[in-house]
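Hi there, hope your week has been kind to you so far. Thanks so much in advance, here it is:
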Amino acid sequence: MNAFVCEGRSRRTAGCRHGYVVAAVAAIALVLPPALVRAQLLGDANCDGILEPSDADAILEALYTPSNCSETDVNRDGRVSAADLVAIVPWLTGPAATPTPTSTGPSPTATASGTSTATPSPSASATATPTATFDLCPSPATVRIAVDNQTGTTPIAFSLSGTLLQATCRNTSALDETYSLTTSDNPASVSTLAPGVWVHSIRMNSPATGQLQYQSGLVLANVGPNDVRFTAFASVKNVLNPNDGLGSGTLRDALLAAPSAPKPHLIQFDEVLFPSGSPTAITLNSAPPPLTASNVTIDGTDGSGAAGNRIIDAGGRQSSALGISGAMNHIVGLRLRNTGANNRDVVSITGSSATANVIERCIIEESATGDGVGIDAGAGSDLLASANIVRDCEISGASDKGVKVTTNSYARVEGNWVHDNANGGIQSTLSAHVWSRDNLVERNAGNADARNGLSVNGTAPDTPQIASELLSSGDISRFNGGNGVSLRGLSTATLNDDYLAANQHDGLRIATEITPATAVVQGTTFACNAVNGAVVELLSQADFGGGALRSPGSNAFTENNLTGGFDNLFNQTAAALFAVNNQWEHCGRNTTCDDASIAAYDVSDHGRFTLFAPSQAHRSHLAPAVTGVRPSKGVAGDLVRIFGSGFNVIDGHAADATCPNVAARNRCVPLRGNCVRIGDVAAPIEAVTPTMIAVRLPLSCVQPMALTVATQEGGISAPVMFCTNAVQ
């Protein structure tokens, strides 16, 4: 290629890159036979046999160092040999694609994820999830059911039953798919069950409180007993009337009676008037009484194990669908929706007495002026025992934030799908404190200041010395209208193993508004954002690795909008910014990075104040390590996070319009970027950082099986056991 092709032009521009590709294609055509050319095309980004700008690195490496090119190791035995030619032959006649095993049994779905903390999301890559073959059930499974007796009476007696909702293997051995027993044994065990997703129920007989409760969960073989836990409540109130109003049997009556009921207290829904599998709404005629009591459970889970069929609809009124000012309450399985004017949140947790409440497996949607969940006025006093928790919920359609925590309140936000809210996803503001873990936060829009996936905004007037705080771990913040994460004013954030990609502004923006913000960032990816990867403004501070705030680095910066004149890392502070031990787009293909290229193209000040060396080579030729998987089991379509080190972010993203579509870039055959296998089945990848990979399960768990991660130009990790009942 002639030197003048890039003369007077930034190497970031597409035209310069195209020149290199043309030269590479011409060279390959001259020196390689047609069949081998076709074999090398297996390394293209989408395996369609068409050379594209993003394929230049793979093609050039195959040309000059074919013996070290992982794309030619088709059979994944760690070396290039004649055996690879045999493996290549089937690919020579058509486009390469990952083999998709066929199902010989019922097709697994993600409609019943049991007690898994996996996040539901109908993303594009989920529809392409390969379906694993339904194998024979390996052995019977055992369920052990323990009942926490809070009735004040001993002994207790109860009836248990269960039904297999979703098979995960072929039951040809007459394993039980239902069970029922009446017992006073505690715990009680049931054996000879078929593995799969089950719904379990308990009916209290003595004392005869009227309690009838359901929960669903994934039952595995060869793991020992699968534990199921129920509480025997001291008192039970049955909602008998789907209409709102005063009088016996209404939800309003149950909320008013809750403070005086013996605790713990259960509010449940009648199976006849609120039939299982049939959405039934209570439309409020006026503001509901707040739940001022403590230690109350409102359980909307129905007999099918599903959440969301028992509905509290605010009717578009100027009130919340549910307000909580008491402590240690548990709201599970409800759909709450449709609040109106006057800034009313769908669920409101408020006041210093509102501590340790849990909102779990609920669907929260449609506020006309407020948030999906609002937690404020000093609710909670720490992030451990007293924090209010929002867990495993779907939160959408709010006119403001999906979850907003304000005024020195404390909340944990875990495993939720927070999407399509009109003014941002999750926010900690006015001296609030949020611990956010394993959330999928996407497609939240709004105005320029507020349309962020996650945000941290300054102090409250009454507590100007207390910064707002965000602790984030394993969050995926993508396709949002603003930044992936935004810090403004006096605020702090610690980001661990987060994926900030394809947002319409920056991946991370640390702004200075009168007072500076501070962030510690580790194991986080900034990729494919429409402006910068990460920005640190003026007096604000950040440690991306090697600084005084003790970040170990292991971040990745790649494929942000460099062609638009922006940067992978923009240091606007004119002060030292530490960013060592990170992966960079322009590191190169060697085991040590090209620091000159990183300085020239990845860092705004070209390394004048930004200290980035030594950098972490994404092609280290070392096998990655897997240290944990969260959750430890699931069904096909669930989102699972794999933690460890040495994952390849740079090769795991494409420099074209498909950049955010990491599932197309990361492949097992041929090996591109990262390959996750569960047993022998490849799992579609949705997010990758140097320390975390998120995959959609291509199969439903039946029994323990090995999980491995392989990286391009690296190796294969030691296997770890997945599909277990381990608590992560």
